[in-house]
Amino acid sequence: MVKIVSKRLIKKISWKLLLGLFLLFSFVSPAGADITVTVVDRNGNPAAENKITWDSASIIPGTTKWLCAKTLLKVECDYTGGAIQIYTDNTAADAIPEWTGSGDPKNLLKDEGATSIVGLPLCWRVWGKLLDDSPDDLIIVQVNGDICSLSSIGWQTWFWMKDRGSDDFIDGDNWITNWKESVGIQVSFWQWVDWWGDTPSPFYIYIGANFTDAMALSTYKTSTLRLELFTL
After folding, report:
1. How many CB atoms lie within 10 A of CB 30?
2. β-pairing, 203-210 with 122-127?
3. pLDDT tens readout for residues 104-127
4. Helix and strand element counts for the chain (H, E)
5. How many domains is the chain built from?
6. Contact 95, 225 (CB under 8 A)
7. Domain hosting residue 151, numbered range
8. Of 13-22, 53-62, 74-83, 105-114, minimum mean pLDDT range
9. Torsion angle, CA of 6/177/159/47, rounded to 10 degrees?
10. Is residue 206 part of a domain?
11. pTM (two decimals)
12. Is 136 helix (H, G, I), strand (E, B) or coil?
C-alpha cells in the first residue's frame, strides 16, 4: 500500500446516489484539469439521465446480495502525473443522510436525515473497455472478504468502496485509487499484489451494491460519492 502524505486536489466530482438512482450533483473544472465523466449504459451509449440505476425487479430486500448497476461511469483523462480516487463521505457537512453512528459509515445509508442504522456496502471495479460481452465479469461474488467476478474467482477484481469516515481510510491508498497515469487502471488484487493495466482513455467504472441488509419499503442513498483527480 502507498500512502500519499501530500497531494494537490485537481478536481472533485460529487454525486447523489440513491437506491435506484445515481444523480450528477456537481462538477468543477479548474484550469488545466483534463477529465470528463459521463454516465453511460452497458453498451457505452450516454444514459438518458445522469443516473446509475439497478434493476429494481431483481432486488429482493434481505435476499439479493451483490448486484451490479445497469449504468456506469465513462472516464476520459490523460493528466500527466495524475491519479483518480473514489469514495463516499457520509460524515461530511453536506452528507444527506449524515452518518451519526459508530463503526464504519458504509456507503448507502437509510434516508432518515441523521442516521445510525447500518447501511449497505458498495463496491467498484475499473476496466479499459466495456464488459457488455462478458456477463460473468459483472456477476459479483463475495468469497470470504474478497469481492470477485464469477469469471475470476480468486482474483479480487472488485474493490470495497471506502468511506472517508472509516478508520482505515487513507488518501491515495491503492484500495480507493482506480487509475494512475503512470501505471494505468487497477485491474485486480491477487496474492498481495496490486495488478495495474494499460492507461486507456476512456476507461469505465462499474458500481455494485450489496442488498442483503436492505429493508423493505426503504430508500438508501448518499449525497457524497466523491471522484477525485489529484497529483501524486
Report:
1. 10
2. antiparallel
3. 888 888 887 788 888 889 999 998
4. 0, 18
5. 1
6. no
7. 8-231
8. 13-22
9. 130
10. yes
11. 0.84
12. helix
